[in-house]
Amino acid sequence: MDVQLVPFFIVCLLSTVYSEGSVEFCYNSPGCNATTWPTIAPLYCNGTRQSPINIVTADVKADNNLTAFSFTGFNDSSTFINIQNTGKSVKIHLDDQKMSVSGGGLQNKYKSKEFHIHWGNGSSFSGSEHTVDGKQYAMEMHIVNLRADVSVAAANDSTAYAVLGFFIEATNDSGKPESWKNLTSFLSNIPKKGDLLDIMNQLTVDSLLEGVDRTKYYRYLGSLTTPACNEIVVWTVFKDPVKVSKDLIDLFSNTVHIDTTADPFITNNYRILQALNGRVVTSQPTSSANTTSSASTLHHTLSISTALLYCVFFWCL
Ligand SMILES: *[C@@H]1O[C@H](CO)[C@@H](O)[C@H](O)[C@H]1NC(C)=O
Ligand SMILES: *[C@@H]1O[C@H](CO)[C@@H](O)[C@H](O)[C@H]1NC(C)=O
Ligand SMILES: *[C@@H]1O[C@H](CO)[C@@H](O)[C@H](O)[C@H]1NC(C)=O
Ligand SMILES: *[C@@H]1O[C@H](CO)[C@@H](O)[C@H](O)[C@H]1NC(C)=O
Ligand SMILES: *[C@@H]1O[C@H](CO)[C@@H](O)[C@H](O)[C@H]1NC(C)=O
Ligand SMILES: *[C@@H]1O[C@H](CO)[C@@H](O)[C@H](O)[C@H]1NC(C)=O
Ligand SMILES: *[C@@H]1O[C@H](CO)[C@@H](O)[C@H](O)[C@H]1NC(C)=O
Ligand SMILES: *[C@@H]1O[C@H](CO)[C@@H](O)[C@H](O)[C@H]1NC(C)=O
Ligand SMILES: *[C@@H]1O[C@H](CO)[C@@H](O)[C@H](O)[C@H]1NC(C)=O
Ligand SMILES: [Zn+2]
């Protein structure tokens, strides 16, 4: 995922290493790629609770608390404000006054801010961030939701964001489904970094998630997947992929550029996998899930993470 830096962190950076309010990063240049993030954003990118991860289904623990979500405004096309080329991805800004998510084992209501997509290089080179038993999907869509009781996420607030991750799987159809055909039709209007197009009243988030059983998902605690990699995300990764035809997937890697139209296309904008470091991934109880209680392991992991966050906070000051 890719969100704005929080003010606290900017202050922190100013007082330590950086002279600017945001961390410049890249995905693919030699000498500037995800392996260098711990150096450019050492506070968090080198942490122990990072994302994305490979989900090992045999190690997933059952949790009865992971009930159905309640989605508000996902059927409302007026929630789409605009679509933007950020130079790193394509981001759709949402109306957080109309769109929110609750339930699903979340302790609070979260307001929907935006969604964006991670991809590889055409449908033949996969680019999802999370993987399941080593399987990488063609793309991954992240719906970013901020806890309703805060207006900006604090750098150390471990549940500030609830991000909903959806895998995109390639099919051999063409131009399917119609919702993704509509969404990708806007890409040719935003070829350059910073380009923005209003797209209100043309499609809904529900229509983009066609075919996904939204009661079946994985849950774990992790981080932003772009610098500064703050460990402030309650992750939900849905099991079912959205099925999108190859021709539409290809448009992401051959239409939008990292800067001007003379620069390369945005490709392979996904972060490398991060270590689990003892974290537990949970899911709804099923016949195949491991039903051993994971509460004590989870508590242990959380205590270590909290201690680390305090250390980092004081070191920063
Ligand atoms: C990423 O950067 C590192 C460090 O400069 C370099 O060794 C590596 O080859 C780069 N990888 C890619 C895929 O460019
Ligand atoms: C990241 O953590 C590893 C292991 O703790 C350490 O060896 C490495 O020096 C750290 N890198 C940075 C840039 O802090
Ligand atoms: C389920 O929720 C209850 C109440 O919030 C909590 O005490 C319990 O630890 C949770 N179970 C798991 C497996 O997280
Ligand atoms: C969205 O669904 C809700 C609840 O089912 C319904 O009340 C509302 O009218 C729907 N909105 C639109 C724009 O269809
Ligand atoms: C992406 O694929 C195209 C051909 O489909 C190729 O020309 C291009 O070099 C690839 N880009 C990267 C970064 O691998
Ligand atoms: C996060 O930092 C704020 C100060 O910016 C502090 O008041 C708060 O207690 C910290 N929270 C945690 C969970 O460390
Ligand atoms: C799509 O086509 C390729 C090659 O034509 C084939 O190998 C693959 O099995 C097809 N996939 C599906 C889901 O039909
Ligand atoms: C696609 O766009 C057309 C034209 O704006 C609209 O009529 C149709 O409802 C849209 N379909 C979906 C699934 O969003
Ligand atoms: C379930 O989890 C326990 C404890 O982590 C482990 O010892 C056991 O092998 C697992 N069982 C299965 C079927 O995965
Ligand atoms: Zn993302």
What attributes does this structure have?
Carbonic anhydrase; binds zinc ion; disordered C terminus; binds 2-acetamido-2-deoxy-beta-D-glucopyranose; alpha+beta; globular; zinc; 17% helix; 6 helices; 13-stranded mixed sheet; 317 residues; Carbonic Anhydrase II
Task: Give a verbal description of the structure.
It is a single chain. With 317 residues, the protein is an alpha+beta fold. It has a single domain (37-283), classed as Alpha carbonic anhydrase (Carbonic Anhydrase II, Roll). The protein is 17% helix and 26% strand. It is built from six helices and 18 strands. It has helices at 7-15, 37-40, 178-185, 205-208, 246-253, 295-316, and strands at 28-29, 32-33, 54-55, 61-62, 69-72, 80-85, 90-94, 100-103, 110-119, 131-132, 135-136, 139-147, 161-171, 196-198, 217-222, 233-238, 242-245, 282-283. The strands form three sheets. Strands 4, 5, 6, 7, 8, 9, 12, 13, 14, 15, 16, 17 and 18 form a 13-stranded mixed β-sheet that branches. A three-stranded mixed β-sheet has the order 3-10-11, with no helix packed on it. The longest helix has 22 residues, at 295-316. The radius of gyration is 19 Å and the shape is globular. It starts with 6 loop residues before the first helix and ends with a helix. Mean pLDDT is 88; it is low at 4-21 and 310-317.
